[in-house]
Amino acid sequence: MKKCDICTFVFSTHQHRLRRFTMRRRPVSITAVHPSPRPGAPLSVLFSGHSQTEPEHRMGPQRLEYMLIHTVIEGTGWFRCRDRHYDLAAGDSFVILPGEMHSYQASADTPWRYRWVAFRGIEAERWLAAAGIHADAPILRGGADVALKAMNEIERTFRKKEWTADWEAEAWLKLAFSAWAKASHPNGPPVAASKKSIAAAEADRAARWLQAQAASSVSIARMAQELGYHRTYLTKLFHQEIGVSPVRYLQQLRMDRAKLLLLEPLSIEEVARSVGYADPLYFSKSFKKWFGITPSEYRKQS
């Protein structure tokens, strides 16, 4: 073979591989929504889908009102929640809990491809706890093969729009959780909860309620009523387990979220409204009292 023929062959092979890579990496995002979810159900699967992201595709900072789990098929990226950074690759899953400020982004060189499923309900909270998932531990390592199969089936179920979609989706989601729970606890379930762990779980539930309501006007009395506790008892329990009062926790939550939002192209008024302050001036005074500088000064420094 002549030298020019070899060069042509190598160039042609390179172009063919490049075309295959480009086709395989073509960005796509598809979501299937539950055709008839049950309102107020202890478990409700809302939607499921899959995506091949663009390089550096980013979501957030944002908050959701439901639970959302992504499982990575291939590629890499990162997830950030509660000022903690997690690098993720194929086989990993990240869990977004209601009310939690979060963001995530695909890498520039190997943007990830993943599937997701969204759901809500009291029963789902119990499943997350069994899998060892909470706001300070939102990452699942393992169980991806079964989870990805389940998410795919949930998506197919919703597309068929049959009247049994609710049951089928719930069954597939339970199968995914069984895989995640086994991966989290390979030697069997954790020891039964003690009174202390139950108190901690209830305090965490109150904390998540505050997280979900942080952008609106709330009161401790309303929180206690919705969670089924006397205000004084819940305040004492919260302080005992979390280390601060509910009011202090809510203020800290709002200020921490404000710092994140000030890094985004939002006005001070928009940031104030997003963290539950109707008056931008009062927000600025509260921010300065908390951090020692105004929101505008913080934005310049950052």
Automatic annotation (TrEMBL):
InterPro entries: AraC-bd, Homeodomain-like_sf, HTH-like, HTH_AraC, HTH_AraC-typ_CS, Tscrpt_reg_AraC-type_HTH. The keyword Iron-sulfur does not apply. This is AraC family transcriptional regulator. CDD domains: cupin_MmsR-like_N. The lineage of its organism: Bacteria, Bacillati, Bacillota, Bacilli, Bacillales. It comes from the Bacteria. Keywords: DNA-binding, Transcription, Transcription regulation. GO terms for molecular function: DNA-binding transcription factor activity; sequence-specific DNA binding. SMART domains: HTH_ARAC. Residues 204-301 form the HTH araC/xylS-type domain. SUPFAM superfamilies: Homeodomain-like (SSF46689), Regulatory protein AraC (SSF51215). The keyword Phosphoprotein does not apply.
